[in-house]
Amino acid sequence: MAYEENPFCSRRIRPGAIPFYFPEGVSSETLLATLRENSWRGQIIGPHGSGKSTLLAALLPEIQKCGRRVVHLELQDGVRKLPLSEEDFQGMDAETQLAIDGYEQLSYLTRRKLKSRSFRQGFGVVILGHEPLEYPDLYQTSRELSVAKLIVERLLENSIVRIPESVIEEHFERHKGNLREMLFSLYDVYEEVYRTLKDKK
Amino acid sequence: MKEHSWLFTKKRGEHRTDSQLVGLTAELVFSAVCILAGALGLIWLGWFYVIPEWKIHSRYEETECVLADFRISPRTVLGDRPVVKEPVDAPSIFEDESSFHAETSENAEKKETGPVLGLPFKEIYYLPEMQLKYFADGAERTVWTPVFDSVTRFSKFSTEKSAEEFLGKWKIGETHTCLTDPEDPDQVVFIPDWQWENFLALIIPGSLVFIGIGIGIHALTAPRYSVSKERNALHGVFRPQQERERSPSGEFPNVPDIREIIDSPGIQLAYRLPVLDSPAWALFIQTFVALLWGTGCIGFLVLTAFNFREDGAWLQLCYLMPFLAVGVWLVGHTYIQLRNATCVGSTLLEIEKFPIFPGRPVRLFLSQGGSKKLAWINVVLVCEEEVVFTHGTNTRREKQRVYQRLIFGEEAASAAHGTAFDAEFLLEIPAEAMHSFVSAHNQVCWRVIVQGKLDRLPMFERSFPIIVYPAREEEK
Amino acid sequence: MICSIIQFDQKPDVFQPLETVSGTFRLEDVELESVNRLEFSVVWYTEGKGDEDIGVHFFETLDWTNGLLGAVSANDAHPAPRNSVCRIPDGDEKGETFSFSVTLPSSPLSYYGMILKIHWCVRVRIFLKNGREVKSEKFFTVGSVPKVQVDLN
User: Fold this and answer.
1) d(Cα B399, Cα C101) in Å, to the nearest integer?
2) How confident is the model at residue B416 (pLDDT cuts 50, 70, 90)?
3) What pLDDT score does C41 carry?
4) H/E element holding B313?
């Protein structure tokens, strides 16, 4: 059976699967330069579903190309301590880049210890959060309809299905700009349209 | 019409401020307020009521005394410092009343014992006192003492008449029990028995402290279901993959373990199906909380009522009102839920055999209890897809019902009022339907849902899981 | 272009539980000596709105140390013995052919639902000595569960 994968399935919209669309004047190179100026410390802030994780996924390979060893942590809900052992910490040095998704749910004490440790041992830290925390600003993501349309266009480029812009706008508004929710919502739209087209054939 | 798939999305910090820090701070502040309020209440009650009560009753000795005389002593409050006046030679109230008033007023002007602050006279209150005759330490003693309504507070009244009425409860010459200090026999207290409401009242501030501590612990530690990604993401709905994906013989990978639902034998048919999401525990906890809250409120209310004649009682009552209102709602709501649960009765669903294969009907037996007449009852077969998506702190669950069929229904069910409604019917999974499937983040599940309504009660719904195996060639 | 062409013996590519999936895969435009190892697998995986789950039903590594990459099956008739992968002679110098035969389990069946789909496929990964990796896969259907149409009666 030949089938066409729904382009809005989780595998295709997960952070890293979609490229990050930089606004004019900003690129991964400029962000890397900013990060370097701040001793490889920085925070990416923005509301839910605005592309923070996607941006991080775009930056990490570039950071690796700079010769740094990347340790990427995605903290699950409810985790208040870093899932790193003392040995893991001792292995971190000035060439190590720690990236933490879910930094805000760490306890205050853990965050203080991490910051002091990073200064002592010299490793860099990039965090994702919803509001400014104790690291220098690296980038602030926002919910943009134009970006949403670009993403949908890219996802549909090899598909027989077309989703009108008005539908994209409607779903963008419905989910208040949360791109992840919008894309999941378009999953159902795509499924319905695709099935209708296939049934007609 | 396509059923709208419902969505349960959990995101930290999104709903109000997009900030987990603010959320955590708010939780901790709330926790601190609860603990502080509770602690203050405990300290106040303990210091002024409970501890003195305990001290008095444990240290002082009971002694028989005779009520020799009564009197009412006026007291004056000057500015914000009470000035205690010695009621020197104040006559008994049962003698010349007018001379008493004149004399005490005169004395009041002449015999101020406290520091004169130069502040205008503010308030006068009347202190009922008794002269007690009793034996202590080998001697007969005669002592004037105020009448205490609790170990730290003596009765006082704003009018002389109310003080007289208060003293009218006793008669001169009566014998009563009083408490004397063994180290100083001249110290005597005329007091009613243990004020148990003081101890009972500790429940309210105590509950506040517990609630505050619980919220604080929760805020600081967060629920630690597990550190594993699958268990955390699935929140117990989908058990770990290796536990659930294997049928007992391993013959059907990724089909849920049938042992989960065949561990209960039936009466009419082979197996009794378990109920999903039984409200029993939730109702139990709710009932416990309602009882605790209600008991605490009643205790405080009784305490306030006992001291109603005292100044400040209205203020106490005002403070108590919100707690009472919550208590009334809580108890009422719990009662309705309990009543509904008990009136609806149990729903038993039994099945002829397991496993179930598509295209092969099996018998079901339904027994619906209830103290009221059954208006209608339906049995629906449904199939739902359930998925979980996680990324970082975001956990997203979605459910989509893809199949629904009424397999049994009856209006104005025939069972007599108060007896169980029984019915037997067939369950058939469509021949080409998908089997039950479970993996770490996805599942296809089949359920039998019993919906019904008893007279004058809201509709009820109970869900029973079933496991459908892949159709075998010979079954088709 | 280096690729692997997978073909099933049976057409259409629909199998029933406990049946045997057999076929061949052919490496095109590659010399076997440049291959470090081959990975052959028969897997199912989910697709949809939930996280992807994968179940590996059959997995075999063919490399030079276990001899599976170099040795040609003595039985030059296809198909391969049950639950195995082996190289078979095909007389073509520009590529190599391998035969496979895997018995399917009784579940899970292929499923085309609304927010969840279950796909079965045969996957071949070629790891070249120069570090490159080439992947190819071919889908097949297990069972005969039709595409789900939401039916809420």
Assistant:
1) 37
2) low
3) 95
4) helix B313-344
Among C107, C116, C153, beta carbon nearest to B385: C116
Domain of residue A188 covers 143-200
A107 and A195, same domain (yes or no): no
Q: Say if A107 falls within a structural domain.
A: yes
Please count the CA atoms within 13 angstroms of the CA of A194 that sit on its side-chain side.
20
Number of domains comprising chain A: 2
| CATH of segment(s) C3-142 | 2.60.40.640
**Integer CA distances (angstroms), A82 to A76, A115, B173, B227, in order:** 10, 12, 78, 11
Record: contact B389-C51, CB cut-off 8 A: yes
pTM beyond cutoff 0.80:
no
Interface test with C, best of B230, B252, B385 (most C CBs within 10 A): B385
For residue B50, the 8-state DSSP code is I
Q: Determine whether the interchain pair A6/C52 forms a contact, defined as Cβ–Cβ distance below 8 Å.
A: no
Q: Which domain-ending residue is among A92, A113, A140?
A: A140
Q: Is the predicted ipTM greater than 0.85, yes or no?
A: yes
Q: Which of residues 35-54 of C touch B (CB under 8 A)?
A: 46, 48-53
Q: What is the pLDDT of residues C55-105, one digit of tens each?
A: 999 999 988 877 777 666 655 556 677 788 888 877 666 778 899 999 999
Backbone angles phi, psi at B100, to 5 degrees: -60, -50
Among residues A102, A119, A140, the one where a domain terminates is A140
Residues A154, A177 within the same domain:
yes
Task: Decide if C52 touches A, using CB distance below 8 A.
Answer: yes
Q: Between B398, B441, B470, which is nearest C106 by CB?
A: B470
Structural domain contains residue A124: yes
Q: Tell me which chain A residues have a C-beta less than 8 angstroms from the C-beta of C141.
A: 1
The verdict on residue A21 lying in a domain is no
Residue B109's contacts (CB-CB under 8 Å, 6 or more residues apart) are none
Q: Estimate to the nearest angstrom the gap between the alpha carbon of B447 and the chain centroid.
A: 34
What is the pLDDT, as a whole number, of residue B157? 85
Residue A15 in any domain: the answer is no
Nearest to B393 among A102, A107, A180 (CB): A102
Same domain, A57 and A128: yes
Instruction: Determine contact: C113 vs chain B, CB below 8 A.
Output: yes
Residue-wise pLDDT for A44-72, tens only, equals 999 988 999 999 999 999 999 999 999 99
Lowest mean pLDDT, pick from B57-61, B100-104, B155-159, B307-311: B100-104
Q: Which of A74, A77, A131 is facing B395, going by the closest CB pair?
A: A77
